[in-house]
């Protein structure tokens, strides 16, 4: 007969199954949509249609009064969709999940609920230590949606905003080439018997693809530069035309810029800050009244003469060349951009609600 000690030892060595991950609570999520405090940000993360879908799935949504006005969504639209309208940002910020476009201020973090979730463009490269410490103090799970991936490894928010920026950037160029804005007095594209507008695009990513499509649709002549041959090959395939492509070398780029009416900087940094590929000398050799648009200015820019501007004062002159360097170009078309953001975030919120919160979402979905 075995002793009591050996019995205990034998029982203690039997492996036990791990406990399954379970929902923290049965209650539905509370989503908060505060009004953006930055005067340059006009987008909102959810449309009234999305709020209606979430409400129908038992999710409560709180919207601060006026949060959607810049994108032409009224409080009545949100209220009719089932949202609760509140009249202070503090009430909207006191939610399980806070959806914002711009990063929150320190005061907004203070107003957030301990242990809540924040989904926003955190712009981590430009944040200071105090910002991160404040999030840690409140035990906030902060998700930077510019790093969000989908199931196939793509970056849906970056892709969507890049599509919008690329399509919009050529319309901005058309605006500033006109005589009404002291431009060169050119039509974007061309007409019979008149040479087409010359557009140089630096970068061959999503912004470049949609800028190229729009430019070609308007009748402009384009040249695309990038140091990745596979990107140049891909953009030619996507556009479906034999367009001019080249790697970035100083001689070819300088010559193309000297003849260009519009130069679009659309390089996206793979790691850290962007590299400057366009020198001040190249810009100075452009024709007077030409236009430079640096879409990548939020990552440091790729044009030496570029400096960040705002929607209120979008342009400045340098070497008699017009510079447009607004970082959040999609905010110019706030309604379109809001629909695009809403389409990406709504399914994520629904999944999060089914699982019971942000931490469960992280636990269950590697891509998230």
From TrEMBL:
According to the entry, every stretch annotated as the Alanine dehydrogenase/pyridine nucleotide transhydrogenase N-terminal domain falls at 32-165
Q: What class of enzyme is it?
A: oxidoreductase
Q: Which GO terms describe its molecular function?
A: alanine dehydrogenase activity
Segments forming domain Alanine dehydrogenase/pyridine nucleotide transhydrogenase NAD(H)-binding: 177-325
Gene Ontology CC: plasma membrane
Q: Which Pfam families match?
A: AlaDh_PNT_C, AlaDh_PNT_N
Q: What EC number(s) does its UniProt record assign? A: 1.4.1.1
What processes does the entry annotate via GO biological process terms?
A: L-alanine catabolic process
UniProt keyword annotation of Coiled coil present: no
Q: Which UniProt keywords apply?
A: Oxidoreductase
Question: What domain of life?
Answer: Eukaryota
**Family according to the record:** Belongs to the AlaDH/PNT family. In the N-terminal section; belongs to the AlaDH/PNT family.
> Which PANTHER family does the record match to this protein?
ALANINE DEHYDROGENASE
Q: Which protein are we looking at? A: alanine dehydrogenase
Source organism = Daphnia sinensis
């Amino acid at each position: 007969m075995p002793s009591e000690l050996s019995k205990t030892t034998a029982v203690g060595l039997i492996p036990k199954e791990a406990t399954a991950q379970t929902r923290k609570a049965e209650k539905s999520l509370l989503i908060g949509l505060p009004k953006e405090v930055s005067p340059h940000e006009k987008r909102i993360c959810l449309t009234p249609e999305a709020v209606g879908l979430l409400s129908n799935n038992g999710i409560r949504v709180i919207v601060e009064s006026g949060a959607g006005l810049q994108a032409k969504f009224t409080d009545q639209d949100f209220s009719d969709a089932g949202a609760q309208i509140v009249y202070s940002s503090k009430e909207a910020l006191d939610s399980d999940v806070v959806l914002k476009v711009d990063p929150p201020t320190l005061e907004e973090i203070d107003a957030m609920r301990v242990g809540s979730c924040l989904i926003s463009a955190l712009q981590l490269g430009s944040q200071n230590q105090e910002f991160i410490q404040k999030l840690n103090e409140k035990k906030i799970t902060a998700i930077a949606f510019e790093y969000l991936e989908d199931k196939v490894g793509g970056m849906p928010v970056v892709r969507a905003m890049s599509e919008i920026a690329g399509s919009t950037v050529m319309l901005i160029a058309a605006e500033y080439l006109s005589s009404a804005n002291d431009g060169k007095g050119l039509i974007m594209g061309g007409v019979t018997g008149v040479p087409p507008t010359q557009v140089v695009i630096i970068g061959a990513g999503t912004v470049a693809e949609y800028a190229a499509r729009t430019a070609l649709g308007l009748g402009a002549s384009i040249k695309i530069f990038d140091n990745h041959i596979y990107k140049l090959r891909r953009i030619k395939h996507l556009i479906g035309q034999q367009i001019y492509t080249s790697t970035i070398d100083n001689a070819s780029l300088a010559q193309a810029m000297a003849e260009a009416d519009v130069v679009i900087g659309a390089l996206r940094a793979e790691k850290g800050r962007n590299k400057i590929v366009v020198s001040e000398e190249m810009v100075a050799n452009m024709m007077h009244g030409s236009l430079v648009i640096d879409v990548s200015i939020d990552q440091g820019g790729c044009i030496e003469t570029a400096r960040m501007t705002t929607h209120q004062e979008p342009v400045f002159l340098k070497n008699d060349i017009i510079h447009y360097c607004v970082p959040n170009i999609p905010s110019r078309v706030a309604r379109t951009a809001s629909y695009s953001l809403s389409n990406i975030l709504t399914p994520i919120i629904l999944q999060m609600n089914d699982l019971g919160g942000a931490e469960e979402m992280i636990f269950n979905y590697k891509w998230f």
